[in-house]
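Dear support,

I submitted the protein below through the web form. The confirmation email said the job was done, but the results page showed an empty box. After a refresh the structure appeared. I'm attaching both so you can tell me whether what I see now is the final result or a partial one.
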Amino acid sequence: MNLNEYQEKAKKTDLHTKVEANELDYYLLGLTSEVGEVAGRMKRVYRDQKGKISLVEKERIKKELGDHIIVNQSLSIPLTANMEVLSNQLTELLNN
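What the results page shows now:
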């Protein structure tokens, strides 16, 4: 699946239509929330595991990173940004 296909499928799961809020603010708050979840997991790794991350915790963090992709896709909607175009622009930057 390419990023355009992903973007179209992910739009179908968007619950924003049930919330009366500024779209951009709503999605930015969602992204901030997801970043906080990853940070919280890492904090617990340092607190409870002395900084040694277990395979179980790696999987939990990977799931959270997947959530980041979903929220970033949602954030692209009010910005009318195409994920495939954004990806290509980043690839160009990396290649320069």
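Response: this is the final, complete result; the empty box was a page-load delay. The mean pLDDT is 85.
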